[in-house]
């Protein structure tokens, strides 16, 4: 790697990205992500986190602005090549499941990408994720948290350079969430984690990107500093106020929901 070459230092660079469905849902997004950096994308419902991840995965294309991956401008022509380099875990694992067994689900991309040690790779990742006992089962019948684990294994087995995670912990119980946090902390990859779970974001990433209801980035910086920034946390609906009960009195104050 050449010193000071941004194309290599920033594995991902978004320049003034606008994305529309019927209406604009990403507004002037500028984002640089370094190789092996882990960032959280936080924001209220509908702020555009999932859409941002789909643009990064090369599944959606912006109407305006540029996306560079490893210094190469991403367009429909080169998007196919990104598939092996970028793995995306969708919010709803059911939308990703289409194989009859967990084994087939994990082996699917390996076959597609032409790996020749498929059996060894499937067994190794299944052991690492403690899902060997499910290999011959149908993934459809697993619990939500188990499905997330299987789909995560199905992505990591082909060793993408970047991992995009969309609300990965919503269906996980506290024990599986703990496993997931340890797993992320040990993972030596570029990770973009979209989540409402401030505690998971805080424990696994040093940098936070916060999106507003107006679909703009309103904060990009240190996770610790974000936790002290009440204005941004309130604007992005990451904290809220509601009444609650303490033994014999009821009062209200802001909640972080850690
Ligand atoms: N396929 C689509 N067609 C039209 N509008 C869409 C589509 N997908 C998402 N939207 C809208 O775009 C906006 C951004 O959605 P997106 O899913 O990116 O937000 P999000 O921040 O991930 O939300 P959440 O936290 O609820 O998952 C929302 O208003 C949503 O209703």
TrEMBL record:
Q: What is its main location?
A: membrane
Q: Where in the cell is it found?
A: Cell membrane
Q: Which residues form the ABC transporter domain?
A: 6-239
Keywords carried by this UniProt record: ATP-binding, Cell membrane, Membrane, Nucleotide-binding, Translocase, Transport
The answer to whether keyword Cell membrane applies is yes
Name a single GO cellular component.
Answer: ATP-binding cassette (ABC) transporter complex
* Bilayer topology annotation: Peripheral membrane protein
Q: Cross-referenced InterPro entries, in alphabetical order?
A: AAA+_ATPase, ABC_transporter-like_ATP-bd, ABC_transporter-like_CS, ABC_transpr_CbiO/EcfA_su, ECF_ABC_transporter_ATP-bd, P-loop_NTPase
Q: Is Translocase found in the keyword set?
A: yes
Annotated GO molecular function terms are: ATP binding; ATP hydrolysis activity; ATPase-coupled transmembrane transporter activity
Listed Pfam families: ABC_tran
The record's section on PANTHER family has: ENERGY-COUPLING FACTOR TRANSPORTER ATP-BINDING PROTEIN ECFA2, HEAVY METAL TRANSPORTER
**Protein's UniProt name:** Cobalt/nickel transport system ATP-binding protein
Lineage here is: Bacteria, Pseudomonadati, Campylobacterota, Epsilonproteobacteria, Nautiliales
């Amino acid at each position: 790697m050449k010193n000071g070459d941004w194309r290599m230092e920033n594995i991902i660079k978004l320049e003034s990205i606008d994305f529309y469905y019927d209406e604009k849902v990403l507004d002037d997004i500028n984002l640089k992500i370094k190789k092996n950096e882990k960032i959280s994308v936080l924001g209220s419902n509908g702020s555009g986190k999932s859409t941002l991840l789909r643009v990064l995965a090369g599944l959606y294309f912006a109407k305006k602005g540029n996306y560079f991956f490893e210094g190469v401008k991403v367009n429909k022509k080169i998007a196919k090549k990104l598939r092996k380099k970028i793995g995306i875990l969708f919010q709803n694992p059911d939308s990703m499941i289409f194989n009859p067994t967990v084994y087939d689900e994990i082996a699917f991309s390996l076959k597609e990408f032409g790996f020749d040690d498929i059996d060894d790779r499937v067994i190794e990742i299944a052991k690492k994720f403690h899902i060997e006992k499910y290999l011959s089962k149908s993934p459809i019948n697993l619990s939500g948290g188990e499905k997330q684990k299987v789909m995560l294994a199905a992505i990591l087995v082909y060793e993408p350079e970047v991992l995009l995670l969309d609300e990965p912990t919503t269906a996980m119980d506290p024990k599986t969430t703990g496993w997931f946090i340890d797993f992320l902390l040990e993972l030596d990859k570029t990770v973009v984690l979209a989540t409402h779970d401030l505690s998971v974001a805080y424990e696994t990433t040093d940098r936070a990107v916060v999106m507003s209801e107006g679909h703009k980035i309103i904060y990009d910086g240190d996770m610790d500093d974000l936790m002290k920034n009440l204005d941004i946390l309130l604007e992005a609906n990451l904290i809220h106020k509601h009444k609650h009960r303490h033994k014999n009195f009821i009062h209200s104050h802001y909640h972080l929901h850690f």
